[in-house]
Amino acid sequence: MTINPDQIVLFQWGWFKINSTIFFTWLVMFLLTFGSWLVTRKLTSEGELSRWQNLLEVLVNAINNQIREVSRQEPGPYLPFVGTLFIFIATSNILAVVPGYTPPTSSLSTTAGLAICVFVAVPLFGIARQGVLNYFRQYVQPTFFMLPFNIIGELSRTLALAVRLYGNMMSGTVIVAILLSITPLIFPVVMQVLGLITGLIQAYIFAILAMVYIASASRAHEETVKKGEE
């Protein structure tokens, strides 16, 4: 049994190879891009809305509300990034019910890539809201000796994001594979349903944690300034 989808090579020509992780990541990206084009090509604000536009508006409003509740800020600047994280991870996990499909989120390389995106986005959003000096000043609060500990904290939470998503998705894939070999009828179906629920929960947790990190970076200096004024 192959645990890591990176080991499943689908095409190779010399040094160039396409493994299962890359192929299904491209597939999910294509489905999301094509699906977005289909849904948004006939958007309207008048008359009867299509069921797909209704679904899209419900999804966007739900993500907006979650971002607003977590960050206590207007969700506009954060919606494209956080929404894309959630939709990509959720779609990758939901497609696990398709025979022959391997979720790219069950690969550490994919989850690490997503975590690195969050690692880069946090200071970018923080700098955009506070400025360069004000943002990096929080790394030496309350004293300069806190600098290495704050840096380690940034790195450790990035690692935790990657490992948490990878561990949950990989364990679900392995359990289903084991049950398929032992009891190929009933239990795998139950595990697939549980896997879908777990996949959606993991997508939600990943996106919420990303928003929490971004919101904390955006508000840290403002809270420091308010305390100083008091």
Keywords:
mainly alpha; 230 residues
In short:
With 230 residues, the chain is mainly alpha-helical. It has one domain.
Write the SSE topology.
Blueprint: E1 9-13, E2 16-19, H1 20-40, H2 51-71, H3 79-94, H4 108-130, H5 132-137, H6 147-182, H7 187-229
Antiparallel strand pairs: 1-2
Helix pairs in contact: 1-3, 2-7, 3-7, 4-6, 4-7, 6-7
Describe the fold and architecture.
It is a single chain. The chain is mainly alpha-helical. It is 72% helix and 4% strand. The protein has seven helices and two strands. Helix 1 crosses helix 3 (79-94), helix 3 packs antiparallel against helix 7 and helix 4 (108-130) packs parallel to helix 7. It is globular and about 55 Å long. The mean pLDDT is 81.
- In DSSP terms, counting alpha (H) and pi (I) runs of 4 or more, how many helices? 7
Query: Tell me about the biggest sheet?
Result: 2 strands, antiparallel
Order of helices and strands: EEHHHHHHH
Strand order of the largest sheet: 1-2
Q: Specify the overall morphology.
A: globular
Oligomer: single chain
- How much is the average pLDDT? 81
- Secondary-structure class: mainly alpha
Percent helix, as a range, is over 70%
What is the radius of gyration? 21 Å
Query: Please, how many domains?
Result: 1
Total strand segments: 2
Low-confidence stretches: none
Terminal residue distance? 62 Å
Portion of residues in beta strands equals under 5%
